[in-house]
Amino acid sequence: MSTARAAVLNAIREPLSVEPLAVRDPRDGEVLVRLAASGVCHSDLHAITGDLPMPLPCVLGHEGAGVVEAVGAGVRRVQPKDHVVLNWVPFNTARVQPGQSVAVFGAGGVGLNVIQGAVLAGANPIIAIDLNERKLGFAKQFGATHTVNAGSTDPVTAVLDLTGMRGADYAFEVIGRPEVVTQAFMAIRRGGKAVVIGVPPATDMVSVPGVLLPLAEKSLVGSLYGSANMARDVPRLIDLYRAGKLKLDELITRRYKIAQVSEAFTAMEKGEVARGVITF
Fold first, then answer.
1. Of 79, 81, 181, 256, which alpha carbon lies 20 to 30 A from 201's?
2. What residue spans of the chain are helical by DSSP H?
3. What is the dihedral sign for C-alpha 221, 111, 143, 180?
4. CA 204 to chain centre
């Protein structure tokens, strides 16, 4: 048995409490990791607001990197002192090809990585859509060829204009708002794919014109962690970072201690950061 300090959500829309918790030893198939850093993500904010129902109290934080401290029986892939990153599901949802067009609705931390992925895939154009000019500035730094402020311009019309009225081959919704999912769907071409990464409130419904599903052969799919095979893909991403082809240092605009976790969420809500990270 060991102890850890954790950001605990005890009640919806209440400030997080940083508390000491007891952590049991790993059981069969489990791994105990001492975290070095954890990303501050909108998914955790959805839990705070109640849009993503969670049993309470709960410990927030699902992005992490650290060092293995102990392993349970049957664990063969890692051992103590290994440096690891955490992931919960397998994922390769979209397979963008060179020259295909991509529209990214939402230029926060995840959206910026979608833009980076589109750059690495050779996509063109890469259109970033957001309401926040600061975020659109980040989008340009990370490889967007065009930006659209959805507060002053209809984003669907803008994407159509930038793709010769054809529509994007792929549109990624990285906000979690039903109306934006609809916009992403309307912005893709015949036979295009709209990929939903953002997490809408649990009770919300998404509406799209049903006639476009069969007659335009449009696809609307969900994506959790990009359906990545993490044992295979993370080493590839690390190689890309080391080769200078993947911007990770630039992505982290602020670092916080765990006692500043509420400040980190406030900055994220205001669009002041590309990605905030809690370091331990």
1. 256
2. 42-49, 109-121, 133-141, 155-162, 178-186, 212-215, 230-242, 261-269
3. positive
4. 20
Coil, helix or strand at residue 134: helix
Whole-prediction pTM: 0.79
Give the integer Cα–Cα distance in Å for 154 and 175: 17
Does some domain include residue 227?
no
How many domains does the structure of the chain reveal? 2
> If you search the block for the tokens 């982290």, which residue do you land on?
252
Q: pLDDT tens digits, residue range 33-64?
A: 999 999 988 888 888 988 888 889 999 888 89
Residues 197 and 117 in one domain: yes
d(CA 173, CA 184): 6
CB 52 within 8 A of CB 199: yes
Pick from 109, 146, 105: which is nearest to 127 by CA? 146
* Residue 52 and residue 106 in one domain: no
In 3-state terms the chain splits into helix, strand, coil percentages (rounded to 5) of 25, 30, 45
**Is there a single domain that holds both residue 171 and residue 68?**
no
Structure-token pair, residue 100: 């295909």
Per-residue b or e along 78-100, where b marks 16 or more CB atoms closer than 10 Å to that residue's CB: eeeeeebeebeeebebbebeeeb
For 256, residues 6+ apart whose C-beta sits below 8 A from its C-beta are 40, 263, 264, 276, 277, 278, 279
> Residue 259 has what DSSP assignment?
G
Tens digits of per-residue pLDDT, 76-135?
A: 989 999 999 887 654 756 789 999 999 999 999 899 999 999 999 999 999 999 999 999
Render pLDDT for 118-136 as a digit per residue (tens, 0 to 9): 999 999 999 999 999 999 9
**In this predicted structure, what is the pLDDT of residue 88?**
62
Q: Which of 222, 237, 261 delimits the end of a domain?
A: 222
